[in-house]
Each structure stands twice: as C-alpha cells, then as structure tokens.
C-alpha cells in the first residue's frame, strides 16, 4: 500500500532536513594579517662605508696625576690634638687640616719670644745711642755696635720664622696648626686625634687636584705591535655601565714591570665631573684603522638563527626584511661586510630578535 501524496511530501521534507544537518561545512580560513611596525618603534642604523678596524682591550686603573699631588710630611715629632678634615674632603690652600702639640715647635716658639724681647731691648739701646751720638756724647763706634746688635737679633728671628714656615705651621691657641699647602682633595688621611707623629713617618695628608688623572693600562707582550703612542682609547668601567670616556695614549713605558710583566701605557684624562677616581679599575679599548674599506654596522645588529647570521633590514615602505649575511671582519663593536649589505640601508639595532621572530611567523 503506497502512502498518499501528502505523506510523500512530508517524508521528503524531513529527509532533506536531516541530510542538511549532517552536511560537512567548509573550513574557515583565517587570513594572517601582516605585522605592522611603526617607524617610531623600530630603531635602525644606516650602514656606512668606513675603514675596517681592529680593537683590543687593555686592563688598568685610575691613578693620581703625580704633578698635581702633594704629600704633607711632618718634620717634627708631636701629637695630633684635633683633625678638621676627612678623606675625600675638598680643601683650599691655607685651610687648617689638623692641630698638633710638639715640644720641638714649642721650643722654637719660645726662642722666638725670647728674641722678640731681645730685639725690643736692642732697639731701645740703638735709639739711646743715636740720641747720644746726635748730642756728640757717644762715638760713632758706639752707634755702630748698637746697630749691629739689632741686626743680629733680627737675623735670628728671621731664621726662627723661616723654620716655622718650613713646617707649614703657625702657633695659635697653644697648638700648632697644620695648613693645606695647596688646594685640592684629601685623597689620603693618616691622622686622627691622639695620633703620635714622628719626623720619619710617611705623609700625614695627601692632597691632589683631581681635575686631571692618569689612566695606567697594561700592555702584554703579544700586544706590543698593536699599541702605539698617540692612539685613541675608550675608557670604560663597571662603576659606570653604559658610559665611556675618551683619551689618548700619551706615553708608553720602555721597561717591563717586574711584578706584572707588562708595559705601562699612560693616558691623561680630564676629570671634569670627578667620576674617574684613583684606584678605580678600568678597561681601555684601543682601535687600529686599516686602509681597507667595507660596509660597517653595529655588532649588536647581528642575529644568529639556525647557526646562520642574519640582519633585519627596514625597507623604504617600512616593511622588514630578514637577510642572511656573512661578515668579512669583526671588531669590538663593529661588523664589516664586502657584500650582502649596501651603504645606506637601514639595519634594525634594537629589539631585533623579537622583530625577527615576528617577521618569520608572518611569512609562514
């Protein structure tokens, strides 16, 4: 028995509905959008043609300029009763550094007071002799003897004053004041209250004008042919990461240091901001320029990927091109190419690893 026309139509509709429910859908393909890089977010360096350079690093340290250092050494014995300065203090010429009691200097002061009294007596005698000579009572010989006595006493006083000046001290308040012979910074201080001072001891104070310092760099035998007088040097220190100071090698010792077995290179450096402190360990980078020319870029622009070297080039349309390269020469912070990079092309030098990965993902 066959179904009616209505039943057949209903069955066909249900079949069509069921078939449509199980019909496979076409996969949705998400189109990858290219990575957009704003020029302000991409730091680049223009490749330039320049001489191929070679650099080496020399270790060393900051030292005082010996031409601007004064070591104060006491010529007498005594006891420090008071100290007015500390290590690192700025002092001016004539400023009181410390006060000291000394039997030797006390004796000199006592002799000075006695001579002052003798001079006063001798001067009164001279005045009396001059008056009597004018009145024709005293002879010319008596007047000459009175004048001679005054001159002898004055000579002794001048000698005492010279000795006190030699000690760079003056007696005040019953003590002797040690005064700064020059202006500068106290870079060594060996005294404190109660310190016993002997005439044979090392310096009490060392004062240096730190406006100019010396950088002493060590040259090993293998680098003798590389380093020459007059070469520019870049001074770096871990104390100031990211900063560097420029100087020139002014002298190279001709004798090896017997302890370190190195030659000493001297670099005179201005020290305007007083950042170069004596005793500070440094690294001096010296560079030699050759006559050979090549395209140079910063060394940090190089990207190592799958054991191959790449750089990221920013094109004129601000797109980024990963380019495989082969360096021909490498310096301390420079890489040189004879081919592969043209002068004027802009190489990415910041966040290049991240950008390189993003570009590769976009190209997949």
Automatic annotation (TrEMBL):
GO CC, one annotated term: cell envelope
Listed Pfam families: Beta-barrel_RND_2, BSH_CzcB, RND-MFP_C
Chain ranges of the Multidrug resistance protein MdtA-like C-terminal permuted SH3 domain: 294-349
GO molecular function, one term: transmembrane transporter activity
Superkingdom as given in the UniProt entry: Bacteria
Keyword Zinc: no
GO BP annotations listed: copper ion export; plasma membrane copper ion transport; xenobiotic detoxification by transmembrane export across the plasma membrane
Segments forming domain CusB-like beta-barrel: 212-288
Domain CzcB-like barrel-sandwich hybrid as annotated: residue spans: 69-209
Keywords in alphabetical order: Coiled coil, Transport
Family matches, as InterPro entries: Beta-barrel_RND_2, BSH_CzcB-like, MacA_alpha-hairpin_sf, MdtA-like_C, MFP_Cation_Efflux, RND_pump_MFP
Entry annotated with the keyword Metal-binding: no
Chain segments annotated as coiled-coil in the UniProt record: 105-163
Family that this chain belongs to: Belongs to the membrane fusion protein (MFP) (TC 8.A.1) family.
PANTHER family: CATION EFFLUX SYSTEM PROTEIN CUSB (PTHR30097), SLR6042 PROTEIN (PTHR30097:SF4)
Designated name of the protein: Efflux transporter, RND family, MFP subunit
Source organism: Dyadobacter fermentans (strain ATCC 700827 / DSM 18053 / CIP 107007 / KCTC 52180 / NS114)
Taxon lineage: Bacteria, Pseudomonadati, Bacteroidota, Cytophagia, Cytophagales
């Amino acid at each position: 028995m066959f179904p009616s026309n209505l039943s057949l139509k209903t069955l066909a509709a249900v079949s069509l509905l069921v078939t449509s429910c199980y019909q496979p859908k076409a996969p949705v393909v998400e189109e990858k959008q290219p990575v957009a890089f704003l020029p302000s977010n991409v730091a680049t360096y223009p490749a330039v043609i320049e001489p191929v350079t070679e650099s080496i690093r020399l270790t060393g340290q900051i030292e005082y300029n010996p031409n601007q250092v004064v070591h104060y050494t006491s010529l007498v014995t005594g006891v420090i009763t008071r100290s007015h300065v500390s290590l690192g203090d700025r002092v001016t010429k004539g400023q009181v550094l410390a006060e000291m009691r000394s039997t030797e200097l006390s004796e000199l002061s006592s002799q000075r007071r006695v001579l002052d009294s003798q001079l006063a007596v001798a001067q009164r005698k001279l005045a009396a002799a001059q008056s009597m000579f004018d009145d024709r009572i005293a002879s010319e010989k008596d007047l000459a003897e009175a004048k001679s006595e005054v001159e002898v006493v004055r000579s002794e006083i001048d000698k005492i004053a010279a000795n006190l000046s030699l000690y760079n001290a003056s007696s005040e308040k019953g003590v002797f004041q040690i005064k700064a012979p020059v202006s500068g910074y106290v870079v060594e201080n060996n005294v404190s209250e109660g310190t016993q001072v002997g005439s044979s001891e090392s310096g009490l104070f060392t004062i240096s004008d730190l406006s100019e310092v010396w950088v002493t760099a060590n040259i090993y035998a293998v680098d003798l042919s590389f380093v020459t007088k007059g070469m520019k040097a870049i001074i770096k220190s871990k104390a100031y990461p990211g900063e560097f100071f420029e100087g020139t090698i002014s002298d190279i010792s001709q004798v090896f240091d017997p302890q370190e077995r190195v030659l000493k290179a001297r670099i005179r450096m201005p020290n305007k901001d007083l950042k170069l402190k004596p005793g500070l360990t440094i690294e001096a980078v010296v560079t030699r320029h050759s006559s050979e020319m090549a395209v140079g870029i910063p060394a940090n622009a190089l990207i190592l990927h799958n054991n191959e070297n790449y750089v990221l080039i920013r094109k004129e349309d601000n797109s980024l091109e990963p380019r495989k390269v082969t360096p021909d020469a490498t310096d301390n912070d420079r890489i040189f190419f004879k081919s592969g990079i043209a002068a004027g092309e802009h190489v990415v030098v910041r966040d290049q690893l991240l950008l390189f990965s993003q570009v590769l993902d976009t190209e997949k």
